[in-house]
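Let's sit down with a protein and look at its sequence and fold side by side. Go ahead whenever you are ready, and we will take it from there.
>
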Amino acid sequence: MKVCPNCQKENLADAKFCVYCGFNLINVSAASSDSSTPQSPAPDSQTTKVNSTAADSKANPNQSAAFSTNQDNNQQQANSTGSQAAADATQTNTRYAATNHLFNSFLRYIKESLINPNNNIEAPHYGGLMSIGLYVVIMLIMFGVFSRRIVGAIENSAGNDLSSQVVSSVTEPIASNIMAISGILIISLAAYLIIAYAVRRLMLNDNIAFLDFTDLFGIYLNISSVLLLATFVLSLFVSVAASAFLLFLILALFGLSQVVINYGVVMVLKDVQGKFNTFYSMLVAEILPAIVIYLISMQYLNDMVTNLANTLQNTFSGY
């Protein structure tokens, strides 16, 4: 007989999973379950039922055979349940798309993320990392073009009144500060991703691999990337005489792209049950990154204002 280490109940010697709790007994040997010191466990309803059935089986051989058959069936059912539980545990990981064409698989991954975003979408291998890379590239290109247009507008407005050296001394820090904003947004994405993964592993006791977690998070990051791309395309048509509606639409799309990231954090945590309450775990995953982003942004804004003030003072001190 094998004694389950989890519930201390006896099982058949060839049992793979416990009949009573489904614990994995593959690594538990029948010899190791015997104790040199006999123990007298407290009687419970299940033990009483088994003893009563065994006693009745001595008086009735047919009933004894039925009891043995019933116990074997229960053991087979427990083994099947345990195997299914082990299979379900692996379902926590990403469903990978069965294709060798990585680019086509990634495009399908993005398409399905837009049509019906859910945690069961098939992802290509390293699909989540590719989604993160796509988001970063679009963010850098968008802010790079935006900074160049701002610098061009300043240079055109300055005309011939100021020397090129004075103009460049003003536009260069402005361009670098605009690009620094994109860096803060990329850091905020990393903060949400890492903290959400830590919450799922430590607070919700889910042993999901980091790459599988990025594949889940990438489903919602794909939506954010498409919104960023739409923001970038619309921003190309913005000029000084742009309508207020177009400016509002661009800001709304950009803000929505950031909100989707917060939504993705909720979606990758909401179906996981662990030792901590899921709702409060999601709060931690939302609040901690917000605090980190706030501290970084305040430090950046303080440095930016100080540098711009010093630059302007040094540039125009001779005028």
Observations:
- The chain is about 70% helix and 0% strand.
